[in-house]
Structure to design on (247 residues):
């Protein structure tokens, strides 16, 4: 293991420790069930203090990547069965350009399930404050530069999160926040084509109208249409990226 554990040099050593071991575990360079060296040995190999190693391992354990067993040591888990949502963005980052098809399908199916119901409930439970916020977001989207990826992705996330707040369900906005890094990752890819911005804004305007009218059935149908459109375009972009990556 010494050949893959090189000394760490960075301002935030704990974060670098976590990032490196996430990568090693997710990519299979450290095998499932493998026992890691002791905290003392890891600290010596990596050139960091034991507290850095301990704090990093505690974080990895909280994410379900490893199990810290008293008098036994730290053992690598199968993240597919033990992992939590907190490592989802790490998995996405390490698979950029070659995203596993099953993972992509699961992500898109989960979003469809959650956001369709969120939108339906938002139409039933929204308040005037929610409507004002949604209107201001759509107006900002209409004025935004389609080439300003940071602004566009931020506004798009705010629109969906505000719908989560408007749903009246306390868990939905928390779920949306949990998925934020992954969400921003995909929407930035989606909006890399500036032509998608005005189309998305039109969908948002239609959703806003349905929510204003308390048309829950219509709102859910428009959200499904919105997500279907987004999925088709995202898959085209990913397919293009894979083609370009081939020798």
């Amino acid at each position: 293991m010494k050949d893959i554990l090189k000394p760490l040099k960075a301002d935030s050593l704990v974060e670098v420790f976590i990032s490196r071991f996430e990568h090693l575990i997710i990519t299979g360079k450290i095998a499932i069930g493998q026992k890691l060296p002791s905290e003392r040995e890891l600290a010596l190999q990596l050139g960091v203090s034991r507290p850095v190693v301990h704090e990093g391992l505690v974080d990895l354990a909280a994410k379900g990547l490893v199990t810290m067993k008293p008098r036994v040591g730290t053992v690598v888990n199968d993240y597919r069965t033990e992992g939590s949502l907190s490592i989802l963005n790490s998995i996405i980052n390490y698979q950029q350009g070659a995203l596993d098809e099953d993972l992509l399908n699961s992500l898109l199916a989960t979003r469809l399930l959650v956001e369709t119901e969120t939108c339906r409930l938002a139409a039933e439970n929204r308040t005037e404050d929610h409507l004002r916020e949604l209107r201001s977001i759509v107006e900002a989207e209409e004025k935004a530069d389609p080439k300003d990826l940071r602004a566009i992705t931020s506004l798009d996330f705010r629109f969906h999160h505000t719908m989560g707040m408007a749903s009246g369900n306390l868990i939905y906005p928390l779920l949306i926040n949990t998925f934020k890094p992954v969400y921003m990752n995909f929407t930035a890819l989606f909006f890399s084509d500036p032509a998608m911005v005005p189309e998305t804004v039109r969908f948002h305007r239609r959703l806003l109208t349905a929510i204003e009218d308390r048309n829950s059935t219509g709102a859910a149908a428009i959200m499904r249409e919105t997500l279907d459109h987004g999925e088709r375009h995202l898959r085209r972009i990913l397919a293009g990226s894979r083609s370009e990556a081939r020798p």
